Amino acid sequence: MKKIAFLLVAIFCSFAFVGCGSSYNYVENLTSYDMDILYDDTAHTLTINQTTDYVNTSNNTLSCVKFHLYPNAFREGATAKVVSVQNSELAYPNGESYGDIEINSVTISDTNANFEVGGEDENILSVNLETELYPDDRVVINFEYVVTLANINHRLGYGENAVNLCNFYPVACMYEGDDFVCDLYNLNGDPFYSSVADYDVKIVYPNAYTLASTGNQTTENFEQVKETTISADCVRDFGMVLSKNFEQKNKVYDDRVTLNYYFYDDENSAQTLELVEKVMTFFEEKIGEYPYSQISVVKTNFVHGGMEYPNMVLISDDVADYETYELVIIHELLHQWWYGVVGNNQFDYGWIDEGLTEFCTVYFFEKHPEYNRTMSEMISSATQSYKTFARVYESVQGSVDTSMNRPLDEFSTEPEYVYNTYVKGTLMFSTIYDLVGEKKFTNALKYYYSHNLYGIATPSTVIQCFSRGSGKNLEGIFTSFLDGKVVIK
Ligand SMILES: [Zn+2]
To answer: Domain residues for 260?
Structure first.
């Protein structure tokens, strides 16, 4: 997510590769999700039949499989809030509103399965398996459920201009060590962690709407409704946005990638699409190829600056001005590389994708003088801003925790998360850029990307890849920033 931090306006955002046309081939034998969805725009519900072909990628034998139920974060009485008090009014323009997910049935091989909805906020669905699932084996699980949307300008919910349909389905929890990772929703950052999977989705919706989504669409028009089928391979998540107000512009570049821009009220739409092309081509050169065939930039009602999903980014219609709007687009598009293709545990290590994304945004501006922002100005502004944060926190709280390697629920406030993840992350990568120089820094970006395609990067992966890719041991610099020992002057 882009939480427009410092630079900006202070709101406080080993696989086998086989098959496919991209030079970065997709992973085979992934977990897959087939969904049949009906959207009712009167009741604001999604009625879904989902078949998940789950593969056990752990080294353990499993007796159950767990799934996140993110829509239950929007329930009345949920202990984990989806927005801070400061953002409540913007998120809920029509007052409080709630949504949830109701699981009606879970079956395995046409037989009712034993399942349980648990977790602090009814946020985890556990499906018990009749027969144990060995490593590399698969189980096909069918779910029937209804998602009710809240009237909220968030990742999931309906607003005045659009319906955001993200994090709406039961998605398999990652398995690490000897257990599933079942973190609760958090209003800080992006509380998600998932592996790449294949998706085949069919959605039926009133024909007044236009649909933006992850993946590649085929749409049939009927008298009352549209039916869109979507295929998305080797993607980390799946999201959609529906709107009656969308205008659309698109362009194909390199005979390979379609750039889609869905918007309303953008008098600079041609300029916006031009920016999208500049960002994609620049970072394909500096980081590595974008391995999918479309990317959609979607303007929508959203409480924060923006939010990334595979092949699709949400850009808030509420950002302060067009320059900020452009900045958010650059940031969110960068997440296609940092979060999308190279994944990380966003709950435990938000700095991995956000810090690098934010610094790469600065690097884009440095190399595109037509946008009138230089790296030295932006880094100087970030430094001042971070120092102010540290000074204020120290004087108010008596001390300030400047460590970066913390899970989302260990940041006591939204600013503490934003400054230590986005701003300090930018300063950390900027320090490394200054130390090794541009050429070795981009070598490190390429090395890190190409060695972690479709996988999960951890802090040690980042340190190792940047050290190897730049030819310089960077462990001391990384750890001094991450542990909070470095003094920012
Ligand atoms: Zn972000």
So the answer is: 248-339
